[in-house]
Design goal:
Number of strands: 11
Radius of gyration: 20 Å
Helix content: 40-55%
CATH architecture of the largest domain: Alpha-Beta Complex
Mean pLDDT: 95
Structural class: alpha+beta
Order of helices and strands: EHEEEHEEHHHHEEEEHHHEH
Shape: globular
CATH class of the largest domain: Alpha Beta
CATH topology of the largest domain: Aminoglycoside 3'-phosphotransferase, Chain: A, domain 2
Strand order of the largest sheet: 2-3-4-6-5
Low-confidence stretches: none
Distance between the termini: 42 Å
Strand content: 15-25%
Bound molecules: adenosine-5'-diphosphate, the ligand N[C@@H](CCOP(=O)(O)O)C(=O)O
Number of helices: 10
Length: 321
């Protein structure tokens, strides 16, 4: 879960009185997620998600996130749509936190994606990239290569309490990636956190994508690398090349990768693994007292990183030759 900030029923009712979405029938905190506080709000007219933005979300980035969801929805991508208050405002304040209401998307996320889900996801990711191509706002990726060292420093010596030698392993990888991060790949809007919990399916078809709060402007192929990490490894840490092939073929059916993007894939996959290893490590070491949250295992990403370090050719991910 994540509910870091509680909302009192009376406060929610007062907040909802500023919207034309009926009156409150029920609400509860949502158990999934780790970043923000989310509530399922049911009213006499339907279901909505109220998100209170927590530590990693900067107020100045909120127009990018809500603008992006509006933009993608207008281009036919199935994603949450921000709901405006009667005043026209989309951004609000609830329980002292910046907040917004979005539409509820039907569908379920899959715990164990199959190759079929990976293919669907690949197509959906490429559609997102195409739909985002003419989005006017830009947001630098704070969690790309220049953001990793500050995270490493925030974890500090405590990294070795999670696994002996972790600090040294991360320091070595960081040095390699800082010196060899790809340049000049095609860029645009990326989701940057399209994990299985952020993709919904109905009848095994991708029915929606949620959680745009890491979205930013970065290499499109970096988003592909994030998805290979998040969708194509088995619970025992093994890379499933059948899933990788399906994800990449699904993606390329909509947006073919350039030769430069293909060549960069192993490096991008290492970077993506290090990024999630680092954010998970910092979160693991800093669970706020009283928060209802299950921090995610940083070492899952150390294993994935080890796999990528041994990859010699992009074809090893299942790319068509
Ligand atoms: N628009 C939505 N429609 C339906 N469910 C949603 C929606 N937004 C969030 N959720 C639910 O809330 C959970 C947490 O949302 P998420 O945006 O992933 O949170 P976090 O940013 O904290 O990780 C999701 O796994 C999903 O169950
Ligand atoms: N996907 C990230 C954590 C962010 O959580 P989400 O619930 O927003 O996907 C990870 O797995 O480390």
């Amino acid at each position: 879960m994540a509910v870091y900030t509680d909302v009192a029923p009376a406060e929610l009712e007062a907040f909802l009185s500023g919207y034309d979405i009926g009156s409150l029938t029920s609400f509860h905190g949502i158990a999934e997620g780790v970043e923000n506080s989310n509530f399922l709000v049911q009213t006499t007219t339907g279901s909505f998600i109220l998100t209170l933005y927590e530590k990693r979300v900067k107020r100045e980035d909120l127009p990018f996130f809500v603008g992006l969801m509006q933009h993608l929805a207008a281009r036919g991508l199935s994603c949450p749509e921000p709901v405006a208050a009667r005043s026209g405002a989309i951004l609000a304040e609830v329980a002292g936190r910046p907040a917004a209401m979005v539409t509820f998307l039907p569908g379920v996320s899959v715990r164990r994606p199959t190759a079929h889900h990976c293919a669907e996801l690949g197509r959906g990711l490429a559609q997102l990239h195409l739909a985002g191509a003419d989005f006017a706002l830009k947001r630098t990726n704070a969690l790309s290569v220049t953001g990793w060292r500050p995270l490493f420093e925030a974890a500090g010596a405590a990294a070795d309490t999670v696994a002996p030698g972790l600090s040294e392993a991360v320091a070595a990888e960081l040095a390699v990636l800082e010196a060899n991060w790809p340049q000049d790949l095609p860029s645009g809007v990326i989701h940057a956190d399209l994990f299985p919990d952020n993709a919904f399916f109905l009848d095994d078809q991708l029915s929606g994508i949620i959680d745009f709060y890491f979205a930013c402007t970065d290499f499109l192929a970096y988003d592909v690398a994030i998805c290979l990490n998040a969708w194509c490894f088995e619970a025992d840490g093994a890379y499933n090349v059948t899933k990788g092939r399906a994800l990449l073929a699904g993606y390329e059916a909509v947006r073919p990768l350039s030769e430069a993007e293909k060549a960069a894939l192993p490096r991008l996959a290492r970077g993506a693994a290090l990024r999630f290893l680092l954010t998970r490590l910092v979160d693991w070491l800093n669970v706020p007292e009283g928060a209802l949250v299950r921090p995610k295992d940083p070492l899952e990403y150390l294993k994935k990183l080890r796999f990528h370090q041994a990859v010699e050719r992009a074809q090893d991910y299942g790319l068509a030759a």
